[in-house]
């Protein structure tokens, strides 16, 4: 897995908006926005923005409070899905066994490893299952 910073380059250090397959990722913003609007075909489009905490961000910032849909996950790359799944555990302080994920999350200011066993809420359990289902579908 390549570093997420290599995916977004200087965007991690500047306030910018990047459009990737219809998903807007905002770096440098400390709030979450879900925006619904009508496009030219009168089809509702849901845009989920990533949240930044200093130079850090989440792939799906509200994955602990909102049930994800297939549409939420379709626009994400395989790597983004893997990060989104693991960030749910990381927010709870899960201590990752693999060096890959230890190294990835140790650089996040918000990550405090505290336990090898974490308790997810029902929404998070559902969302982890949805992400795994999407990963298997590909």
Characterise this structure.
This protein is α+β, with helices and mostly antiparallel strands and 138 residues long. The protein has one domain: Methane Monooxygenase Hydroxylase, Chain G, domain 1 (Up-down Bundle), CATH 1.20.58.1690. Helix content is 35%, strand content 19%. It is built from five helices and six strands. It has helices at residues 4-8, 70-74, 78-91, 99-106, 122-137, and strands spanning 16-20, 23-27, 34-38, 44-48, 51-53, 56-58. The strands form three sheets. It has a two-stranded antiparallel ribbon. A two-stranded antiparallel sheet has the order 3-4. A two-stranded antiparallel ribbon has the order 5-6. Strand 3 (34-38) and strand 4 form a beta hairpin. Helix 3 runs antiparallel to helix 5. The radius of gyration is 15 Å and the shape is globular. The two termini are 17 Å apart. 22% of the residues are buried. Residues 7-40 and 42-55 have low confidence and may be disordered.
- What distance lies between the first and last C-alpha atoms, to the nearest angstrom? 17 Å
Whole-number mean pLDDT: 75
Q: How are the strands of the biggest sheet laid out side by side? A: 1-2
Q: Helix coverage percent of residues?
A: 25-40%
Identify the overall geometry.
globular
Please state roughly what percent of the residues sit in beta strands, choosing from under 5%, 5-15%, 15-25%, 25-35%, 35-45% or over 45%: 15-25%
Low-confidence stretches: 7-40, 42-55
Keywords for this structure?
138 residues, 35% helix, 6 strands
């Amino acid at each position: 897995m390549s570093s997420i910073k290599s995916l977004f380059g200087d965007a991690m250090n500047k306030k910018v908006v990047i459009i990737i397959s219809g998903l807007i990722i905002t770096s440098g913003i400390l709030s979450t926005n879900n925006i619904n609007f009508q496009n030219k075909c009168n089809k509702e489009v849901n845009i989920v923005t990533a949240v930044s905490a200093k130079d850090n961000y989440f792939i799906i910032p509200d994955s602990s409070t909102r049930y994800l849909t297939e549409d939420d996950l379709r626009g994400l790359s395989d790597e983004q899905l893997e990060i989104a799944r693991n960030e749910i555990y990381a927010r709870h302080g899960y201590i990752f066994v693999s060096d890959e994920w230890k190294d990835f999350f140790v650089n996040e200011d918000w990550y405090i490893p505290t336990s090898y066993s974490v308790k997810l809420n029902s929404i998070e359990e559902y969302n982890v299952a949805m992400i795994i289902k999407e990963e298997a579908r590909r």
